[in-house]
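User: Hi! I'm working on a homework problem where we have to compare a predicted structure to a textbook description. Could you give me the structure for the chain below?
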Amino acid sequence: MLKKQTMQQQDLQNNALLNVITPIGLEFNKNSLSIGENIGKIYGLIRYPQKVEVEWLSRITNIPSTIVSIGWQPVDNTTLINAISRSVVQQRGLAEGAKDPLSRQRAEKAAEDGEKIIMQIDREGETVGLMSVLIMPIAKEEKTFKKVCRRAESIVSMMKCKMRVIPNLQKESFQHLSPSFPTNVKVESMLQKIVPISTFMGGFPFASSGFHDGEGYYFAKDTSGGLVIVDTWRRGGDRTNSNFVIMGNSGVGKSTAIKHIILSEYMKGTKIFVVDPESEYKDLCYNLNGNWINAVGGSGGRINPLQVRPSPRDDEQEKEVERLYWDEGYGMNDLALHMKNLEIFFTLYLPSITDMQRAVLKKCLVELYQQFNITWNTDISSLKPEDFPIFSDLYKLIQEKAKHPIDRQIYNDLALLFYDIAEGSDRFIWNGKSTMKDTQEENTKGGSITVLDTNALQETSDSIKRTQYFNILTYCWEQMSKNREERVLLICDEAYLMIDQKVPQSLVYLRNVMKRARKYEGALAIISHSIVDFLSESIKQYGQALLDIPCYKILMGTDGKNLKETAELYDLTEAEQELLLARKRGHALFLVGAKRLHIHFEIPDYKMPYMGKAGGR
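Assistant: Happy to help. Predicted structure tokens:
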């Protein structure tokens, strides 16, 4: 019978679990210990501050690379009150008999604190108890271990607490710390201090690290392994928009991070547009059944710059009010606003165009639109892409104007300037009706993704490159501003390609989109390698806004001048600069509103197959 019971006990023992939780070896020294491959040292908290703040204990329990044990034992209130009363009488006597001011002041303060505790216990019925705290820094390498110990000592000292190593009792302290051993009476008696339960509970000793909005999606982990859960569309407090800026050198994990965000936003039902200069998002787009478009012309990706786009409106009532204002000679309608965008387009495409040529070109454009029955009062929303002129039509009109003797020379010059865009090599990009599909009606019940691939632009001149980026940006803004109740995220990868220091209008437009996006439930994400590109003196007033406005800033590894500019712009501490200088892949400084976190992007395994092979792996 006894043998049968012994066999049953053996069956209940989980050897696999024991092998997992049992350390390879244990060694105890006078002031330290070794746990397998790790080095540890156990400290005890021997003094607490006279006044504590809310969540004071959570600052101790969340010290990185440490294990903390907190013991709490209730005590009899009557015995404690009598003891404190005697102590108050004693301190009052010391204060009256003290000859020097310092001793008198300390005795009076001790007496006042004792009286306050008596009031909490006796009048308010508060429970008190004996609290003990053990802290064990732990690390694998000696150099790292010393840093961890210094950091723990510094944090505790800043809280006006005091801790000391427990010499010759490291084994007993480890047993007291471990959940597999009972409380060690000797260690507990050394460290126990009387604390009201409100001080203990108000310290939030069980509060975990990390960041949690209460809703949203998994974003990353902090250095303590705590989850960072973010709702990027949350408004209130220090978060007024959903814009992103992501900066860092090549190879530090920017693509991985943004693809992780894209997948999370897609699952939340967000409509996503990606401007992709390096063809990095093609696989991701196809894996999500998205709409991949070669945005450098062609049958499915042409955006006709001469197609007038409706300007954003709040509602039908605003449209009616604006129409009445226009009839009375106030405000600007869709065609007038589009003419302003065309000014930027032609300035980017033809930087050398003169003021006189620009004025004549405007005149030709107004006449061209009239030929297509488009006037200042036309309702643009009722027209289709086939109803708008293309550059061949504009080129023919300019050629006809050049036949007349008046202003013949200026029209001949314009005809030469517009030959390439109408009949030359640039006609493949811009000369034709718009073939981009309207995504407004697609995927209305869930998220959708449209990737505008601009890789073919990289071999073209800077003027063509920046002109087409501006053209794409105006199209994306039209999509973002159509429906104020629909969440739309526009991601501009390699955003430095949109910057032209000589012609900053495109950058100004991008800044204005970022400022206005929040009003239309939209967001803009700027991704680039170098922060310096945005801070050149000629464009700093516009470029810096793209770095300042976003409430979500992800700063990844960088060095040199970029690190210096980043540190000045965001007022980084030395520790934060060291984080960026280390350039660890997947690690970043995350600024969410006014809060700063050191995060590590640990991407769930199920997301990796969606990301594809190009970048972000």
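For your comparison, note the following. The longest strand covers residues 128-139. The CA atoms of residues 89 and 111 lie 8 Å apart. Good luck with the assignment!
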